[in-house]
Automatic annotation (TrEMBL):
Keyword Transcription in annotation: yes
SMART domains hit by this protein: HTH_LUXR, REC
Residue intervals passing through the bilayer: none
Gene Ontology biological process terms in this record: phosphorelay signal transduction system; regulation of DNA-templated transcription
Domain Response regulatory: 12-128
Keywords assigned by UniProt, alphabetized: DNA-binding, Phosphoprotein, Transcription, Transcription regulation
Entry-annotated residues carrying 4-aspartylphosphate: D63
Name the UniProt record assigns to this protein: Chemotaxis protein CheY
InterPro entries found in the cross-reference section: CheY-like_superfamily, NreC/VraR/RcsB-like_REC, Sig_transdc_resp-reg_C-effctor, Sig_transdc_resp-reg_receiver, Tscrpt_reg_LuxR_C, WalR-like
PANTHER family, per database record: TRANSCRIPTIONAL REGULATORY PROTEIN DEGU, TWO-COMPONENT RESPONSE REGULATOR
Amino acid sequence: MDQKPAVNRKIKVLIADDHQLFREGLKRILNMEDDLEVIGECGDGIQVLEFCNHTRPEVVLMDINMPIENGVVATERLRDIFPEVKVLILSIHDDESYVFETLRKGASGYLLKDMEAESLVNAIRSVVGGHAYIHPKVTGKLINQLRRMTYLDEIGVMSGAAATKEAGVKFIAGDNNPLTRREAEVLRLMAEGKSNKLIGEFLYISEKTVKNHVSSILQKMEVDDRTQAVIHSIKNGWVTL
């Protein structure tokens, strides 16, 4: 159902994505709507904060994988400084760990880039109206993850956001830890010597998704391989054997 508001005004939207062609296509789609106006484009998280310091959008469509400062960090900083600005994550990742992390950082919704234009437009209107919006494709995964987290907590494997412990390897989440919860799980299993295939089977995700998480871990830690990542995490006290 179309959620277009009756009030004749334009919702100011900022697009944050490091792919220029994607931004241009999205801008054309949104500007076709009478009540939406794209007032700017950014290619990284730092630019988002700089833009909002001068021009205040109502909604930021935020990609996760951006250079310099990613969408997760940018979302947290943006919501701290400008709490009135709504953040809608628009990503290719349908992994529930990204959803948890971005919502925890203050995002009002999580969308996938393969969604229909009409649904995207309605999601923007919805969050401006004070509601949250999560793409239907990730809702089921989100529910399954919540059930899994509840089960792990009940059996004492996991206690809140502080630590996860299995098979003798413990992962400690600290203030200086840049990893998402799912990346933390992957790193812990890497420390146990598990391959990408085994990690995927253990976490019920595809091997390709595991590879994406490993790449993100290496990038955030600024290391070249898995061994260095594990050593780095141990030195920082994130993993104990």
